Amino acid sequence: MKPHEALAGAALAVACLAPGAVAAQSTNDWKFEASLYAFLPTISGTSTFPPPAGTTSASVDIGTILDNLKMTFMGSFEARRGQWGVLADVIYLDLGNTKEQSQALALGGISLPADINAKVSYDLKGWISTLAGTYRLVGDSDYTADLVLGARVLNLRPSLNWSLTGNVASIPVLDRQGSRESKDQNWDLIVGYKGRATFASDGKWFVPYYVDIGAGESKFTWQAMAGVGYAFSWGDVVGSWRYIDYQMKSGKVLEDLSFNGPVIAATFRW
């Protein structure tokens, strides 16, 4: 299925999930909520850097290198008036690590021989940002459901450094150590569905959920989140699991990329 066909099918499926009538809104006043959250993902994917003159391409298995989160900021904001709303979600990442005797590096698409010691450093910095409009399909005290339509931008700067020792006779001299850096940006249209369902008689406990799919400058991207939350007078505390996945078009430095892990969030409403 082509990306635009998948998007159209998803939009139709989301619309079919809604009941024929939307619950009446009690007010047209603006309502706001802001969330700060900790996202602790496992990261996987592949970066392939094009070769400078006289060298070969260099690829690295991201998941076997990155396990050190240097700095992060993660938050979201939503404003709603009646059935219509707007949401923004931002993740800033600064990750990096260095490994000795790593097998994560490949040169010219070929893995290094076992008798070569590779010292590999990889860093990944940048933003994952989502901006979307929402339309409330269902809105009652026990269950809410919103249609989401917008865009997600992936703006990352991967960098790679390596040095080889050992039996390097089979490796061209210019490839025995190297440094590569690139900047990748992808804009993708997304369509999704989000909301919450309470499961306790007092309405305090609830299940939040979010799912979207998209395509554009990347071949395909999707995201899903679900968890358990507890409502207070000032807002919510939520524990959930979040997955973000990208499949890139050919020629991109980041060939594929995924973030998969737990989220702990505090949401404030006013």
Describe what you observe in this structure.
The chain is mostly beta strands and 270 residues long. 6% of the residues lie in helices and 66% in strands. It has one helix spanning 3-17; strands at 30-39, 42-49, 58-61, 69-81, 84-99, 105-107, 110-111, 116-139, 143-166, 177-181, 184-198, 205-216, 220-231, 235-247, 254-269. It has a ten-stranded antiparallel beta barrel. The longest helix is centred in the first third of the chain and has 15 residues, at 3-17. It starts with a helix and ends with a strand. 29% of the residues are buried.
What's the SSE pattern?
A: HEEEEEEEEEEEEEEE
Beginning-to-end CA distance, first to last residue = 42 Å
Strand order of the largest sheet: 1-4-5-8-9-11-12-13-14-15
Give the integer mean of the pLDDT values. Answer: 86
Please tell me what the overall shape is.
Answer: elongated
Q: What is the number of strand segments?
A: 15
Q: Major sheet, described briefly?
A: 10 strands, antiparallel, barrel
Tell me the Rg in angstroms: 22 Å
Helicity level: under 10%
Class derived from helix and strand content: mainly beta
Which strand-content bin applies to the residues? over 45%
Low-confidence spans = 10-15, 17-26
Features:
single chain; 6% helix; 270 residues; mainly beta; elongated; ten-stranded antiparallel barrel
Could you give a quick summary of the protein structure above?
The chain is mostly beta strands and 270 residues long.
